[in-house]
Amino acid sequence: MRVVRLFAVFVVFLILLIPSYAQVSKRISAINAPRAEQSSSVPISIELVPTANINRALIRYRSFGVTEFTEVEMLQAGRSASATIPAEAVQPPYLQYYFVIEMQDGTTETFPEAAPDLNPLQLSVTQVDPREREVRFLSPDQGETVALEEFVLAISLYYASPAVAPARTRIFFDDADVSKEAILSDDVILWAPRNSSVPITLGAHSVRVELRDTLGNLYYTRERSFSLSTTEALAEEAARLQFNGDVRSEYRNEQTANPQTFARLETRASGTYSFLTFGTNLRLDNLESGRRQPQNRYLFYADAEYVRLEVGDAYPRFPSLMMLGKRVRGVTGALRLGFFDIDVSVGRTERMIEGAWIQDTTFADTNSVRNRPNNTLPKYPGTTDDSLYRAFELFSVGTYSRDFIGIHPSFGSGENFRWGFTYLKFKDDMSSIHYGILPKENFVAGTDILFAFDDDHIRWETQIAVGLKNSDITGGNFTDADYDSLKKQGNDVKALGKIAENFITVNGNLEPLNPTGKGLPGMAMESYLTMNYLSNYIRAQFVRRGTSYSTFGNEFQQSDIQGIAVSDNIRLLSNRLFASISYESKGDNLSDTKTGTTKYGNLSTAVTYAHGAGYPTIQLGYGLNSRLNDQFIRPPGITDSLRSFRDSSGAADDAATRYTLGMSYDIPGSIRNFVTLSFNTVNRDDKTIYRRDQKSMYLQGSVSTFFKIPFQTTVSFSTSQTSSFNQFFYSASAGDAAYTDSLLTELKFNYTSVSIGAQYRMMNDALRLTAQIAPTFGDVNRTAIRFGGDYTYRAHVFELLLDIYQNSGIKDDTIMSFVYRYNF
């Protein structure tokens, strides 16, 4: 009977939907982005449409005041893909991002689909109250276990506002007021429980500090939790091996146009023994194949206070100008001495994927590779037979394994000063595959320096790098005859070339080699200055990346660009009102080798009002992005009268205006409701003869209701409307006269999604049932239904989900997945 009741409840919620689920595009069925807090990393995941035939997914993100996006590859597991935005990028007032989906047929799509760099998704970032920094706990640390015999509560008020009266500070130990027992000395408050009248026990405790102003009013409150133990118990625990972790297995069966089965096993474990911390991350995936980059991942690590060692798939940290978010399979280590640190990584960033033979063929002229396709090899190498000499193999191109070594020594702790040097070397292994072309090599060297003053209120960071790339190292280095030939042309570079050969292959494919134009095409520089004073957080940036600057450690990074950017985040009305503004000016054609130069101007503003608990948080934004290229372009036959409807016939001359509105409201009460609303509109005005105007609008809202019983519902909707224009030119005739005519075309992409959902918890929260439905109308016409549940029994968690996609015009899709997790 109990089973029948459970099943009845489950069926009732079949028509309901959990909050994160909403149809959004042709390739992405759901986006899961949690609330973001300042300087805290943000995990973002997407659910991929089962019929999408996706090769990989990327996320590109940027902070407020930063116009260039940073690209990170998302980790795929079945139809899910996830990535974590690092804490340093999560800054108020918002974080912008969009997705890039690479298909198996080589095509690429984005979401949002139209001009995602102008109309990205936006995630509001909650600003940390600056008063948080005015109270510094010197001891104990959050969550620390301290010996009772050695415990002393130490609090620094050195950075407290002048409005604070240190003598009026109140200290509460487990809600007991011990303020009179504390000692104030030189802006430091000390309290030891040994002579306290409050009974002290071993176990978990908390401390609350209340700052008061000169009138005795409450100014700010901070809390900290910790545990008390004995010296003997802590010594025994440190000498004892401790080990914990979890195992997660997943099985997923997809009945789609291309039926597939996914199986995956993940294990994460960590342990401590005395001063040693160690652990492992393992992932086994049935998608592992020699025809793609690794899906199985493994990592073993050990950390012994001053030394850290990682073996397997690691993400070494080097200065971002030179390397960012690149996976290395090999050995990565670090030595941390404080006054001197060094990071080293050796391994491979790409795994070999052998090409495939297509067919045998012949070519009459084989004197030069330019007379036949690059993807051909002699069928009988070394033969002198004329008929055999003309025989070749035609093949599909494979991927060379790419060897990597990176070294970064640095001096200084990084608290106030650090000076580092970087050496990076990437080189394709030509012997790793038979069917390959254009093996490459990359050498990067640079320096980075940091100065910080006044408790990090002033911070200056600068990176300078040189990046050289060889796009084909097949022939090796220049011979002496090659150098002599260059000398005859007036380029005596032999001495310099012989030195460079110690770092990279030197031949005619090296970039830059004998550069034309002006400037330093292989050099890049980034410099950042931040100042945090008088309720202003000011950030200034200078960027210059030469025309030929290249690093395989950060390939998405734009070269041939130079500019400055300035932003300010102002705190007003006792940190309830935040005004943010940023402006960037930059341009390309640094070496003066292009026929035209493009100038960019980008303005972003935002005003955020956050009164506090019980009141809504509202954010308004305005942005203007402009682009102007001075290259004159006119299609053949265009007359002045035909182009009179536009002011410019340059290669680019447009401006995009953006307005945003965001609101969230956590409504308290016996039945709590959390309401969100966001609105974004972009209008791009293209002044060139091509009239590539664009208009887009995106509106989204949701209401989540939390009942007194363990029941939660969510109603949400989203609608997107985009129109893209283009002036199409074609030849026409009137009588005996031929002329060029034009037609203004418009491409629309509109959709609306609605979702209703709920979640019900039973058996003391051990059993959780969910059910969902999400219809999408318009240019994307599909309904997704999900229902399932999870059950927790001690350290075991079982989860079963069923997804049904009701497609328009094609067969429906069904996906069943089972997940088992075990914590130990």
Radius of gyration: 31 Å
Distance between the termini: 34 Å
Report the uncertain regions.
1-23, 640-646
Helix content: under 10%
Q: Describe the biggest sheet?
A: 26 strands, antiparallel, barrel
Number of strands: 49
Structural category: mainly beta
- The CATH level-2 architecture of the domain at 130-238 is identified as Sandwich
How would you classify the quaternary structure?
Answer: single chain
In the CATH scheme, what's the topology name of the domain at 130-238? Immunoglobulin-like
User: According to CATH, what is the class of the domain at 130-238?
Assistant: Mainly Beta
Beta-strand proportion: over 45%
> Per the principal axes of the C-alpha atoms, what is the gross shape?
globular
Mean model confidence by pLDDT: 87
Tally of DSSP helical segments: 5
Q: What does the model show?
A:
It is a single chain. The protein has 824 residues and is mostly beta strands. Among the domains are: 26-111, Immunoglobulin-like (Sandwich), CATH 2.60.40; 130-238, Immunoglobulin-like; 356-396, no CATH class; 475-505, no CATH class. It has five helices and 49 strands. The chain has a 26-stranded antiparallel β-barrel. Strands 2, 4, 5, 8, 9 and 10 form a six-stranded mixed β-sheet that branches. A five-stranded mixed β-sheet has the order 12-19-18-14-15. Mean pLDDT is 87; it is low at 1-23 and 640-646.
Write the layout of secondary structure elements.
Elements: H1 2-12, E1 28-32, E2 36-37, E3 42-48, E4 54-63, E5 70-73, E6 75-77, E7 80-85, E8 94-103, E9 108-111, E10 121-126, E11 136-139, E12 145-147, E13 153-156, E14 170-173, E15 176-177, E16 183-185, E17 188-191, E18 203-212, E19 218-229, H2 231-239, E20 242-255, E21 260-273, E22 276-285, E23 297-303, E24 307-314, E25 328-336, E26 340-350, E27 356-362, E28 376-378, H3 386-389, E29 391-396, E30 402-411, E31 417-428, E32 441-453, E33 458-470, H4 480-488, H5 494-500, E34 510-511, E35 523-533, E36 536-545, E37 561-572, E38 577-587, E39 598-610, E40 617-632, E41 650-667, E42 672-686, E43 694-706, E44 711-734, E45 737-762, E46 767-778, E47 782-793, E48 796-807, E49 813-823
Parallel strand pairs: 2-10, 12-19
Antiparallel strand pairs: 1-3, 3-7, 4-5, 4-8, 6-7, 8-9, 8-10, 11-13, 13-17, 14-15, 14-18, 16-17, 18-19, 20-21, 20-49, 21-22, 22-23, 23-24, 24-25, 25-26, 26-30, 27-29, 28-29, 30-31, 31-32, 32-33, 33-34, 33-35, 35-36, 36-37, 37-38, 38-39, 39-40, 40-41, 41-42, 42-43, 43-44, 44-45, 45-46, 46-47, ...
